[in-house]
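INFO batch 0412 | record 1 of 1 | parsing
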Amino acid sequence: MRRIVVTEFMDERAVARLAAHHDVLYDAALVDDPARLAREAAACEAIVVRNRTQVRGALVDALARCRVVGRLGVGLDNIDVASCEARGIRVIPATGANALSVAEYVVGTAMVLLRGAYLSGAAVASGVWPRAALSSGREIAGRTLGLVGFGSIGQETARLARALGMEVVACDAVLSAGHPAFAAVGVRRADLDEVVRTADVVSLHVPLVESTRGLFSAARIASMKAGAVLVNTARGGIVDEVALVRALKEGRLGGAAIDVFGTEPLPASPHFEGCPNLILTPHVAGVTADANERVSFLIADKLIEALA
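INFO prediction complete | emitting tokens
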């Protein structure tokens, strides 16, 4: 039996599947105990992480016996993939398993922000009746969704948006202009500037790498269509948060949903206070009960296969 260490939360039935084949330490709080994490890492043949565990530097050095890193998600910016591969450690992300969860978050928050009526519960309950003020919301059908990145999550988002009557335009630095994924979903390919300039809703689906760090700067945010909505479920370092808030407060953008931040957990951030039409969530777009089950079982099965 191989030793597997799980450092963050995982579906317990998937943990049980792993434990039927191997010796498993499952402790969702292990990520917050670096000294113990390093000790446990030194003795494991596989480690399973989410986005908070930083598999780099000293932790990679501690993985002397490790053969596999299982990532309960798709982003790899918390994993030094090159260092892992140099040590013969295979990195396995849960590609596609949480795509639907993220896609529903994007479309759902876009509908809330375009319509502008769903956050009035407290006012209505207090006796206020803001019917006139909330009667100028926008429907999602007929609007244009712009996708920055067209991998599995972007493609799933496009499918949902198209079903609701949206036009979809996408850019991707990796996929060629003739890639069949665009035609398969009925999406028009364009360059980044056109996507940003023409979309009513811009949704980000790119990894955080040097070429995407600060991609949505103050200048790029300023180039967005007046009244547009920005949804970021990718990584926080891609968007200039201060510039985004300024655009919302000045009324140049119609709204934003931000699930990821430059620093996580997000510390107290005064610049977000009093910001209109802003939805903030704690990096949960890809985490539902359903997605957690899919992600967890996919990684469990992949680890069992890799350690056989």
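INFO post-check: The two ends are 9 Å apart (CA to CA).
INFO record closed
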